Every structure is written in structure tokens, then in C-alpha cells.
Amino acid sequence: MDRDYYADLGVARNATADEIGKAFRKLAARYHPDRNPGDRTAEEKFKRIAEAYNVLRDPKTRAAYDRGGADTAFRGFDTTEDVFSQFGDIFGDLFGARFRSRAYRRWPDEFDVEPEPDLDLHREVTISVFTAMLGGTVDVPTAEGTAEMTLPAGTQPERKFRLAGQGRSDFTGRRGDVIVTVHVEVPRRLTPAQRSLLEQARRNH
């Protein structure tokens, strides 16, 4: 057995599926290429843990690996793009809601990773009640410009989102996150058409 996938993820050989998934999410967030631009070591680590998770997440390939690793039908990832292709937007599947940035791939609004309090930035944005109900986008100031964040339909007032890897950086190259608090503005006046539509929605609720 050339590789110890359990060691790559930092879990015991008898780890449960939930423990394997949790370990992968934490490491993937830490070594994701968007958080470590230009860092080849982090890129290799990211591919390595993705390979480990890809084998251990499936009971059949995990069992084959545990028997000696000779026939898992998987030979690793050559590039990070292979990782995203294999998992079909890996973080969307694993973490749920995401954000979209002009300079970065999509990232979840919440994930299990240790915070970087000295590097994180806190931002507040205000959206209309219509955007909160229907979903939409909002521009968020980051350490290096502006990110366009996609909001899901049904966004609640004061909900917090995390834009990973877009906060401040330190001399080691670590980057913090941007924590975004969303305020919802309720209009003081409605047009007759808006009022009519809202009254209809209330009757049908």
C-alpha cells in the first residue's frame, strides 16, 4: 500500500464516514487553491487529501483499499481542475450555499475551519426585502477589491456569510476571510403594483 489515506486526512482507520467527511472539509478549506494562490505545496496537499477522500468516502473503494489498495479503480488527480471536475463543484456538494467572486471560485457561506481572527475582515451590506426573498447578488468590499456575493432566496436579516480567503494576509501568506452581515431594508412606501402583488402573495401563503 503506497499511500496511507487515513493519515492524509488525519483520521483513524476505523473512522466513521462522518468523521472522514468532517476531516476532509476542514483540510480542503485550509488548502483550497483560492486561499493559497501560487502555493504549489498547498496545491499538492489539496490534491492529496482530495484523492484520499475520493477513495475513503465510498464504502466499496474504501473496503478495496483496506484489503491492500490494489484495486480501488482510482489513480489520483493530476491538477486541481481534475478535483473540481471529479466532484462536480466539490464545495457546492459538500457545504451547500456558495458565493461567487470575480477573482475566485465559488465557496460556501459556512464551513468547519478554525478562524483567523487577526486576518478576518468584517463587512456589512444592506439589501432590499425583494432581494432577500428572491435571491440576488451584492458587492462586498474585500482586502483586494470587491467580490460579487450571490445570496440565496430566503436570506434572513442579520444572516452572516463567510467569503473564504478574501481577508487580510500576513507575512507567511495566510489569508483571513471576510465575514459579511446582511441587513434587510423594508421599503417605507410601496407602489400600487407592489402592494397588489404582496397582498396576493399573503392571501396565497
Structure description:
With 205 residues, the chain is α+β, with helices and mostly antiparallel strands. It has 2 domains: 1-92, DnaJ domain (Helix Hairpins); 96-187, HSP40/DNAj peptide-binding domain (Sandwich), CATH 2.60.260. The chain is built from 8 helices and 7 strands, in the order H-H-H-H-H-H-E-E-E-H-E-E-E-E-H. The strands form 3 sheets. A 3-stranded mixed beta sheet has the order 3-7-6. The longest helix has 17 residues, at 40-56. The model is unreliable at 88-116 (pLDDT under 50).
Structure summary:
This protein is of the alpha+beta class and 205 residues long.
What's the arrangement of secondary structure elements?
Elements: H1 5-9, H2 17-31, H3 40-56, H4 59-66, H5 80-87, H6 90-95, E1 98-99, E2 107-108, E3 121-128, H7 129-134, E4 136-142, E5 145-151, E6 160-163, E7 178-185, H8 192-204
Parallel strand pairs: 3-7
Antiparallel strand pairs: 1-2, 4-5, 6-7
